[in-house]
Amino acid sequence: MNVEELLALAGLVGAVLLGSALQRTTGVGFALVAAPFLVALLGPFNGILVVNLFGMLTALLVFFRVFRRVEYKRVFWLLLPALVATIPGAWVAVNVPPAELSVVVGVLIIIALAGSFLIRRRTFASGRGGALAGGLASGFMNVTAGVGGPAITAYAVASRWPQHQFAASVQLYFCVLGAGSMLAKFSLPTLDAPQWAGTAVGLVAGIIAGEVLGRRVSAVLARRVVIGLAFLGAMIVMLQGLVDLAGS
After folding, report:
1. Within 10 Å of residue 14's Cβ, how many Cβ atoms?
2. Which tens digits make up the pLDDT trace of 122-178?
3. How many CB atoms lie within 10 A of CB 193?
4. How many CB atoms lie within 10 A of CB 60?
5. What span, in angstroms and rounded, lies between the C-alpha atoms of 27 and 153?
6. pLDDT tens for each residue of 24-57
7. Do the beta carbons of residue 9 and residue 17 sit within 8 Å?
8. Three-state secondary structure of the chain
9. What is d(CA 194, CA 108) in angstroms, rounded to the nearest whole number?
10. pTM for this prediction
11. Residues whose CB is less than 8 angstroms from the CB of residue 24 and which lie 6 or more positions away in sequence, other chains included
């Protein structure tokens, strides 16, 4: 393994570790942080598959620790439209060329992040209509860009969903949605043995780190870190796609 491959492996492990740590700390954050960097390292299609798989595994591990606070009925009404939206999203993910998809992924992440700020200043439907809109947007963006969190966060803000119940409930949501996103694309990530081993270590280490961080770092600070890193990563992915388009 040469230096370039070692650096790529370190970046892959680091993205999974950081994403899983912030997911454990804040309830969301794996895809927002990991997706831009995994897409840059592995390409848009394979990178998002890694996000779907390890986002699902992270949510599953966290779910086992918080399942008593999950609001199952609310999760059900979000999952119904989200799983439906994975079907057109999967078509986009499979049929759009890599360079164009990189630009789309970057733009979608930036739009989602900007929307999560705007929702705080406006009042939207917070009942079944809000769940339908949030689920549809989240499902489509999860399968195409790996970022289903901002749309669900926007719904949580609009519906005044208490943070503790929200943080617990979305673990079940992301677990099922991640599995549905991979099923819709009929694919699993393509990684070599060192990459599988490294991402597995990063996942476990991130969960452990998130346990520690959750006791010492405020939720406000953690969310700011998530948003800052996600914006940076999205810009990198979008610029990489634009460069590839210019060179083609």
Report:
1. 16
2. 555 556 788 888 899 889 988 887 778 778 877 887 777 887 788 889 999 999 998
3. 7
4. 16
5. 10
6. 887 777 888 888 889 888 988 898 899 889 999 9
7. no
8. CCHHHHHHHHHHHHHHHHHHHHHHHHCCCHHHHHHHHHHHHHCHHHHHHHHHHHHHHHHHHHHHHHHHHCCHHHHHHHHHHHHHHHHHHHHHHHHCCHHHHHHHHHHHHHHHHHHHHHHHHCCCCCCHHHHHHHHHHHHHHHHHHCCCHHHHHHHHHHCCCCHHHHHHHHHHHHHHHHHHHHHHHCCCCCCCHHHHHHHHHHHHHHHHHHHHHHHHCCHHHHHHHHHHHHHHHHHHHHHHHHHHHHHC
9. 30
10. 0.81
11. 58, 62, 206, 207, 209, 210, 211, 213, 214
Of the candidates 61, 186, 176, 79, the one whose C-alpha atom is nearest the C-alpha of residue 136 is 79
pLDDT digits (tens, 9 = 90+) for 167-218: 889 999 999 998 988 888 888 899 999 999 999 999 999 999 988 887 887 7
Residues in the chain, total: 248
The alpha carbons of the chain give a radius of gyration, in whole angstroms, of 17
At 99, which amino acid appears?
Answer: A
Structure tokens at 183: 């099923």
In terms of C-beta density within 10 A (0-12 exposed, 13-18 middle, 19 or more buried), how is residue 216 classed? exposed
Interaxial angle between packed helices 219-247 and 30-42, expressed in degrees from 0 to 180 and rounded to the nearest 10 = 20
